Amino acid sequence: MEELYFITSNKGKFKEAEAKIKHLDIELIQLRLDYPEIQASDLKEIALYGLDFCSERFKSPFFLEDSGLFIDELNSFPGPYSRYVQETIGNDGILKLLLGVINRRAYFKSVVALYDKGPHTFEGISMGKISNEIRGKEGFGFDPIFIPLESSKTFGEISTEEKNKYSHRAKALDAMVKYLENGVE
Ligand code: IMP
After folding, report:
1. DSSP-assigned beta bridge partners for residue 129
2. Domain enclosing residue 115, as ranges
3. For the chain, what is the mean pLDDT?
4. pTM over 0.90
5. What is the C-alpha to C-alpha distance for residues 44 and 5, in angstroms, rounded to an integer?
6. Is the separation of the CB atoms in 110 and 65 below 8 Å?
7. What whole-number distance in Å separates Cα of residue 156 and Cα of residue 136?
8. 138: domain CATH number?
9. Residues lining ligand 1, judged by CB closer than 6 Å?
């Protein structure tokens, strides 16, 4: 494989994937192709629907990624609705919903769906908690309010390089890279 397309309009996601793939002899290309994101509670189902839709229209090897933030105290909200929630109430809105709440446990989940000769999925989870205030300007989305277990800083306070060592997307991308290297899922 010489070229691999990442179908996403999210620059932050692309930057993270680029860093993970750069040691392979593969050119990673960002492709902004709109595909339907169905309403479902399962990220894998959403990703596989998108994969199927795109594979009928696009014939080179590609992957896409679906991710979400699951907050314990909010019964896993926003989960699959993370993008919409980020675009509407944003980080301030989430902090307001959790004002005075002691249980701040949360996790990020990422599902990477790859299409080469067929569909493959790879998953990663990052456990952590929601901070009490917005901290840091790195990254994107909920990064400034999420503190991973591995750190006392938010994802917004650490470099992409550091985030890429243990984030949900890093784990899912690592699994995909392993597959691209060895053909083993
Ligand atoms: P989607 O995967 O494009 O449907 O959107 C998931 C949404 O979750 C993104 O738009 C972000 O708002 C949020 N999100 C997913 N992964 C991350 C991350 O690594 N950091 C911060 N926010 C994230």
Report:
1. 105, 147
2. 3-182
3. 96
4. yes
5. 19
6. yes
7. 4
8. 3.90.950.10
9. 10, 37, 66-69, 82-83, 86, 108, 139-143, 155, 167, 169
